[in-house]
Amino acid sequence: MGSRILGLVREQVFSSFFGAGFANVAFQIAFRIPNLLRDLFAEGALSAAFVATFSQTLTKHGEREAWRLANLVNNGLIVVLSIIVVAGIIFSPEIVAFLIRDVPIEPARARLMFDLAVKMTRILFPFLLMVSLAAVAMGVLNTKGRFGIPASASTMFNVGSIIGGLACAYLLAPEYITNTATSLFNRQQPARDDLGAATAIIGMAIGTLIGGMLQWLIQVPSLRAVGYRWQPILSFRDAGVRQVMRMMTPATIGSAALQVNFVVNTVFATSVAEGAVVWLGNAFRLIYLPIGIFGVAISTATLPVTSRAAAMENLDEFRRTLASSLRLTLLLTIPSAVGLIILSRPIIALIYQYGRFTAFDTDQTAIALAYYAIGLTAYSTVRVLAPSFYALRETRIPMLASLLSIVTNYAVAKFTIDHLKIGHIGLALSISAVSIVNFALLFFFMRRMLDGIEGRSLFGVFAKVTLASAAMGAVCWLVSNRIENYLGLDGLFARLINVGVSIVVGIVAFYLGARLLKVGELTQLTGAIERKFGARFRRNRQ
User: What angle do CA 186, 352, 152 make, to 5 degrees?
Assistant: First the structure.
């Protein structure tokens, strides 16, 4: 949660200082490929394949062999990813040329944006190596039962990006940063300064690289604490390494759907409007908040348990764990999706509409957010389902489902852009559509593999939570509209009251509705929270 909230703060900084103009678009494009690879490695294929193999090695062969595997994977990553990073730096112009097509702005600004994107792509590519090493560290610590430090590691990425980025931006373009900060303080619209923005945004790229380094370094002391010691060994023929590689190859494709689709949509978005890439990126960041807090967190906690159950061939335990995780995901993400749809405009205004980010940018981002939110629950459940296939050493099904999703997204995106003419709205809708398709396929095949996943209870939770969320949405809409009628949507106070009161009232309404409908997972969740914080409170009193 801390990481995702700081991620929003990071996006606030970018939007306030650079708006939806060409400099921010250039950064989004430059970060797209390294960020795609980060998602696949840091929260996707590498983590899933390594945790499954490391857990199996630890269970069957003991700690010595497990540590040897960790060293082999770490050292192999350094070699392979260093080659990829160097190649990415060399071919940055070709990568950017693929992502930027027919930008509807004047030629001089378009050329400046292209050159800027190439320069920042070269700065950001080493970020991939840092976060991949962090992913291995996270897998080791999670398997050893330590979740706090790995979960907070991405918080350090955001801290480094914000503080380091602003510091570097100020060193490179002090006048631009000072003028923008002054305008923010005085609640005025800053004057346009393309050259200043182009110089300052490079500092933000350097800060992002610093953040990636911190994400890895913060986990090093904990690695030593659980017994890991680095050794200069390397072998791509080791059985454990080959198993990780075998699982990673199709698993990379299986985990790739959303980010690959987002890259494809970036190419389409550059031809829609100058700010379309930023509108979609900012909306996607808000979608990633509940995904990161709930979907990735539940998946991270589930994978070591299902991996151990699979290693011991205990399918009953595997089925119970997976079904429980899916029910919990439904409980947490369905109301999140409804809330984001209903409150999209006031939320975007509260978070982003400052400095160089205008009211028009808010409206366009809010529309994208509402359409992204349609697929929020489906994507969160995919984050739980896909690694479960890897735990069973079945990688073909997620790969095929992902490939189908990528093809579907391209077809839907092209149709909405070329024929429906609905611009970036269609691109957000296509992401939601393919997330739903991906979930449906994974759920169908997992159900066949396990001979059922407690489907009746899952459908019951889905129906009850959806009904309670619909009631919550109606309450949120009424409250938000009443507040907007009285206070408007201009100024921090009005936005904060609108969003804060609406969310609090909505949570209460959902809780009461879910209790009335007797959603068992709600009682389980609240009971766990009460036990955890109650025990802490008692310890503090003693």
Answer: 115
Q: In 3D, which of 306, 334, 336, 304 has the Cα closest to residue 320?
A: 306
Cα separation of the two ends of the chain: 29
Range with the lowest mean pLDDT among 138-147, 157-166, 392-401? 138-147
CA distance 255 to 383: 8
Q: By the 8 A CB rule, do 207 and 162 touch?
A: yes
Round to whole Å and give the CA distance between 489 and 493.
Answer: 9
Query: Residues near 342 by Cβ (< 8 Å), separated by ≥ 6?
Result: 473, 476, 477, 480
Q: Is 495 exposed, middle or buried (0-12, 13-18, 19+ CB in 10 A)?
A: buried
Domain residue ranges in the chain: 2-453, 464-542
Long-range contacts of 345-351 (CB under 8 A, 24+ apart): 345/489, 346/480, 346/484, 346/489, 346/495, 346/498, 346/499, 346/502, 347/286, 347/499, 348/282, 348/283, 348/286, 349/489, 349/495, 350/492, 350/495, 350/496, 350/498, 350/499, 351/8, 351/11, 351/12, 351/286
pLDDT digits (tens, 9 = 90+) for 400-450: 888 888 888 888 888 888 887 788 898 999 889 888 988 999 999 988 888
Q: Residues near 123 by Cβ (< 8 Å), separated by ≥ 6?
A: 30, 202, 205, 206, 209
* Other CB atoms within 10 A of residue 94 CB: 9
This prediction has a pTM of 0.80
CA 329 to chain centre: 15
Give the whole-angstrom CA distance, residue 142 versus residue 304. 7
More confident residue, 471 or 47: 471
Residues 265, 409 contacting (CB under 8 angstroms): yes
Task: Tell how far CA 42 is from the center of its chain.
Answer: 10
**Helix axis angle, 194-217 relative to 148-159, nearest 10°?**
160
440, 469 Cβ separation under 8 angstroms:
no
Contact (CB, 8 A) for 310 and 393: yes
Residue 103 region by backbone torsions, left for phi larger than 0, else alpha for psi between -120 and 50, else beta: beta
Residues 53-104: tens digit of each pLDDT = 877 787 787 778 888 888 888 888 888 888 988 999 999 999 898 888 777 7
* Pure H helices in 100-193: 107-124, 127-143, 148-159, 165-172, 174-186
Nearest to 337 by CA among 480, 434, 453, 476: 476
Give the phi and the psi of residue 30 in degrees, each rounded to 5: -65, -35
pLDDT in tens, 219-232: 888 888 877 777 78
